[in-house]
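pinging the channel bc i need a second pair of eyes. not urgent but kinda urgent?? the chain im working w is below, pasted from the shared doc
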Amino acid sequence: MEKKSRDQFRTRLGFIVACIGSAVGMGNIWMFPYRTGAFGGAAFLIPYFIFVILLGFSGVLGEMAFGRVMRTGPTGAFGKTMEMRGKRGGRLIGLIPVIGSLGIAIGYSVVVGWFLKYLSAAVSGTLGQVEDMGAYFASLSGSFGSVGWHMLGLALTFLIMLFGVSSGIEKMNKIMMPLFFVFFLILLFRVASLPGAVEGYKYLFIPRWELLGNVKTWVYALGQAFFSLSLAGSGTIVYGSYLSDDADVVTCARNVAFFDTCAALLADRKSVV
């Protein structure tokens, strides 16, 4: 009986947008604007860009290549690596990023549930009738107010996964990631027209050079770059295991780091007020 071939990303673009989708998250949208403003404005971008370049061409590239060589996820990849050296315990090491990713996924499932609820309310028109958004969100986030929406989000995620890598994850990311950047550009222009936008831009982007001498600025820039690029998780290794042998890993890593940074900068500009 002929062994069924393992599914792979059909195009390099599909792999890149999938990795960007895995990397871009709350670290870009919520955390990055806060840290930029708190640690020197435009001055914070200097250490951040330095660490993105260093981590992009080391960590991201390394995880992609590691996954492609081993053709499996973290537990299998670390297990094989240790076995090559005649040692055990590799699978236990590989469980560490898997457990971490599970914790992150649980948190994101809650956010997806909120998103679906707000999307439904916006489409139906009821969101525009809400007078107190704080109370509306409190009713949604407390006392199991959105469990049904969380379950719907998980069901949609499992449905996409059932279609596999090329027909599920790759196709959905080719649609959703361009939409993500389009929506952020729309928000960018909308925010720029709001009262107080100029002061917000000044707070975020006027450099406070004295903070470059603060160790915390560099520490938080490193942490932000590390978290934003989704390093030490399992996503990049898993996606790398589905990357074809003829794909240029260096180019893929560079593009992921570049577009992830673009997403963070767009989030920065839409959070000025």
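so The two ends are 62 Å apart (CA to CA). and The chain has a mean pLDDT of 85. — does that match what u expected or am i reading it wrong
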